[in-house]
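W.,

You were right to be curious about this one. When I first looked at the sequence I had no strong expectations either way, so I just let the prediction run and decided to look at it fresh. Below is the sequence, 321 residues in total, followed by the output.
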Amino acid sequence: MLSIATWYKASQANKPLKLGVSFIPSYADSLGLDPQKTMDELLGIGIKHFRLVSYWSEGEPKEGHYDFTNLDWQFKKAEQNNAKIMLSLGLRQPRWPECHMPKWAENQPTDRWQPQLEDYIKAVVERYQDSPALESYQLENEFSLKNFGECKNFDIERLKSEYKLVKEADPDHPIIITRSDNFPMPMTAQPRPDVVGFSVYRRVWDGNITKRYFTYPMPAWYFAYQAGLQKIITGKDSQIHELQAEAWPPNGQSMQETPIKEQDKSLSPDRLKDRFDYGKATGMREMYLWGGEYWYYRKAVLNDPTLWNVAKEEYKKDTTK
């Protein structure tokens, strides 16, 4: 495993380093932030790569009526600032409850809502595929992860159908499909994506067994091994689509209920710096940090710019700009 990891890191070392961030306007709003100002601030510290969402619940709030207001202004800001976008598609997308089904579809049988979901996905693709900001799609975030989120449908045939739909609608942009676990096996099943995405979390609150903070023991080279094995067996590239860079409040608390001193137990400024270093040590040269809205919340609402300042320095190291 270490030999594969060492080979992989050496094979990627001369590639440019791309540092992005996930951005979700509704989460910024929940933290008491102005979403548009938050994106402006993230752009202002030099972030040029954004992972955006296209929640079905927001994009089709009424059956048959699409509303792209939210995504339109995000794409416009990206285009105006020469930024690039990875666009999330599908039912399962980042942040709780993970599966973002509109209320009008919740009690419908699968053979009724699935075609409507695919119609919505196609409408999203057709609206943004010609944007100069669009770089890639991420389809169905961590599709097979059954122990986290309020998701009920894990039918792989649905994923295959959505993949085919997106490829036919827009064959020019790559599709990323993300892994749902950290087991040391490559993603080889169909649909086989253009790029494999890894979710990397380091320090979380274990509310089930130990009732304390838990740091995952895997060294960075473990993910280099996984990405290397993926490359050897399938020829596919890998990226970190979600690198934890946000505090994990204990006992199910909201962020607003959690004092800074407690937040720092899972993500202090030193831990954030370490998170960037850990991501780079995996050898993967493209990574999207998870927590940009949170860094700005600490700065603008809690008057604590320490995380923001760390991020500002790290994004200067993006060599793709």
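Here's what jumped out at me. The two ends are 33 Å apart (CA to CA). And, maybe more interesting for your project: The chain has a mean pLDDT of 96.

Coffee later to discuss?

I.
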